[in-house]
Structures are given as structure tokens and as C-alpha cells.
């Protein structure tokens, strides 16, 4: 009896490349398609927003220097309608510029010129953060985390504040989840970076500062004097009910 042909493995993800430099686009498309990613491209911000809405990519690779608008504005507009992970590719190297992109809602930042292996590793990590987690057995006593201001439902992956659902990006959710699963305990900077972004992240403490500020803005009554998300300077962060 003839053996049935093996089904091809599914593509590891859909990538939207937003870049106006043809050589970089060509290199990215060739490398991504060689690894079986589905790839769409856009050469400006307006096209990127249309493609993101129509194609629903698993991750966006975004250059900040676009011809029609700044990439940071693209991130802000994208965040009003989508939680898709955004990986910035940019020649801008100052800390302030990186923080501005992260604060707008980017999930990671790679400085040009970049190594393809590093980029692909960060791409895989970004896609993993955006994937819905499968069902897992939970201790009923730890599924629902309640404070006087908000509630975190770990099973449903939802946050409610004042009777309304709070919209979190995948990266914000992962950071929140690690902290609320360790109430009252100091979670070190390196541990948070490893658990949220991946094992290759150890020194990007500016990511933690930006994302903790975002969680405080969304969940704390007084973000400048946080009650629940406490910074231990130089060490890490702690969640208090």
C-alpha cells in the first residue's frame, strides 16, 4: 500500500515587514521565507496600518524612519486597534529614542545594523509572547487576584478595573502575570527579563522601567505613588495586594 505523503509543517508565523529601504526588505524577505514564515511588506506607515488590519500578522517588524510618518506614530495608531507584537528595527541608538518607541507600545528594539541570527531569535520570542496560552490547571485560590482597585483573572487572562476590562498588550500581560503569581516577593530584573522577553535578555532594564510605568498608568490609582507595583531600586519589582 503506498504511503500517504507527509503534510508540510505549518508556517511558524505571519510577519509584516514595514521598511522603505529595498535592500533591507529583500534581505528580510529572503531570510524569513527561507524559514517558512509568511511575509507581507509595506513601504510606509499608511500601507502598514492597512496591511496590519487586513492580514492580521503575528508580528510586525517596523523601521522608524518611514517616508510618510514617524514609526513611533505608527506604533501608537496600531496600538489603538491591535495587540500584535511590534519589533522595531532602527538606526536610532539613543536611550531616549528607544524608550519613546517602547513607551508607544513596541515590544522590542533592534538597532541597525543587526545580525540576522539575533533578529530571528528576537522575532521568535515576540511571536511566542503574542500566542495565546493553552489551558492549564490552576489552583482555584490563585486564579483570581483581587485588590481594592482591580482584579486579575489568570485563567481568562483578563484584567478588570472599576467594572471595565483593561486592555493589555501581550508583553504587559506577561509582566503582570509573573508579578501577581509572586505576591509580596521580590522578582529580580534578570528573572523578569528572562521570563517575559526570553533567555537572551539580561541587561535591557529600560524595558522593565517602561512597561512597569505602563502597568501603573493602567492599574494604579496614583501611578506616581504606586500601591501595588513596587520598585526595589537596582534589584527588581514586587507586587503587593
UniProtKB/TrEMBL annotation:
SUPFAM superfamilies: CheY-like (SSF52172)
Top-level taxon of the source organism: Bacteria
Keyword Lipid biosynthesis attributed: no
PROSITE patterns the UniProt entry points to: OMPR_PHOB, RESPONSE_REGULATORY
UniProt KW keywords: DNA-binding, Phosphoprotein
Record-listed 4-aspartylphosphate modification sites: 63
InterPro entries: CheY-like_superfamily (IPR011006), OmpR/PhoB-type_DNA-bd (IPR001867), Sig_transdc_resp-reg_receiver (IPR001789), WalR-like (IPR039420), WH-like_DNA-bd_sf (IPR036388)
Pfam family, one: Trans_reg_C
Keyword NADP: no
Annotated OmpR/PhoB-type domain residues: 142-241
Chain ranges of the Response regulatory domain: 14-127
Protein name: Response regulator
Originating organism: Streptomyces lycii
Amino acid at each position: 500500500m503506498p504511503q500517504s505523503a507527509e503534510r508540510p509543517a505549518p508556517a511558524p508565523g505571519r510577519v509584516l515587514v514595514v521598511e522603505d529601504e529595498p535592500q533591507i526588505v529583500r534581505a528580510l524577505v529572503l531570510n524569513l521565507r527561507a524559514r517558512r514564515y509568511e511575509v507581507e511588506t509595506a513601504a510606509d506607515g499608511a500601507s502598514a496600518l492597512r496591511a496590519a488590519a487586513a492580514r492580521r500578522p503575528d508580528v510586525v517588524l517596523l523601521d522608524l524612519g518611514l517616508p510618510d510618518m514617524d514609526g513611533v506614530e505608527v506604533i501608537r495608531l496600531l496600538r489603538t486597534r491591535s495587540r500584535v507584537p511590534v519589533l522595531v528595527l532602527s538606526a536610532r541608538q539613543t536611550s531616549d529614542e528607544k524608550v519613546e518607541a517602547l513607551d508607544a507600545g513596541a515590544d522590542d528594539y533592534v538597532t541597525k545594523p543587526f545580525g540576522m541570527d539575533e533578529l530571528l531569535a528576537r522575532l521568535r520570542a515576540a511571536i511566542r509572547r503574542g500566542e495565546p496560552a493553552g489551558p492549564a490547571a490552576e489552583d482555584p485560590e490563585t486564579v483570581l487576584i483581587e485588590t481594592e482597585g482591580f482584579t486579575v483573572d489568570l485563567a481568562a487572562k483578563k484584567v478588570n478595573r472599576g467594572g471595565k476590562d483593561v486592555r493589555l498588550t501581550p508583553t504587559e500581560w506577561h509582566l503582570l502575570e509573573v508579578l501577581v503569581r509572586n505576591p509580596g516577593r521580590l522578582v529580580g530584573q534578570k528573572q523578569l527579563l528572562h521570563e517575559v522577553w526570553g533567555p537572551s535578555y539580561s541587561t535591557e532594564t529600560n524595558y522593565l522601567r517602561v512597561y512597569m510605568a505602563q502597568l501603573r498608568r493602567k492599574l494604579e490609582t496614583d501611578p506616581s505613588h504606586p500601591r501595588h507595583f513596587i520598585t526595589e531600586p537596582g534589584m527588581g519589582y514586587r507586587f503587593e495586594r
